[in-house]
Amino acid sequence: MLNKVEVLMHPVRMKISQALLRNKENGLTPLEMVKIIKDVPQATLYRHIQVLLDSEIIRVMKEKKVKSVSEKYYVLNEEKLKLNQGEWNQASQQEKLDFVSFYQLSLMTQYQNYLKKIEETNHSHDGAAFSLIELKMNDEDFLNFQDELKEILTKYYRSTSNQDGKDIPVRTIGVTIIPDT
Description:
The chain is built from 8 helices and 2 strands. The protein has 181 residues and is mainly alpha-helical. Helix 1 runs parallel beside helix 7 and helix 3 crosses helix 4 (42-54).
């Protein structure tokens, strides 16, 4: 697991991952990524794409022949990004903190991009929301809560996956659950 986190913690690779996350239906070519990630030189971007590919964090979705060149479309290899319960249980405290740091850093980067977009479009309304609450629950209620939360997130994730349309805004929902011991 540490290798996944070490690979993903790099700012350029994080930007690549986020661009691919937003374009998972069709994937992106490196040239399309350059247009999205404007602050990274093309050669640097290619190097980091190769690192992600070698780590199996991204994969080639399809190849298209354009003139004499074969363009590769990359997508996140979502199964490689997930940790199963066994991997999580095997992880050291430091590895878990690194993974949570990656998660928080990803949210921070997305929020920074969101604020930049608001500024560029002269929007005055910031629709982001944050909350931190502590709930007192017994183990049974806690498990039911987690199941219900997973169910509602899965429902909306599936419904948005079926929508074809570039005009539909992306909503990022981040959830962190810290059970008391």
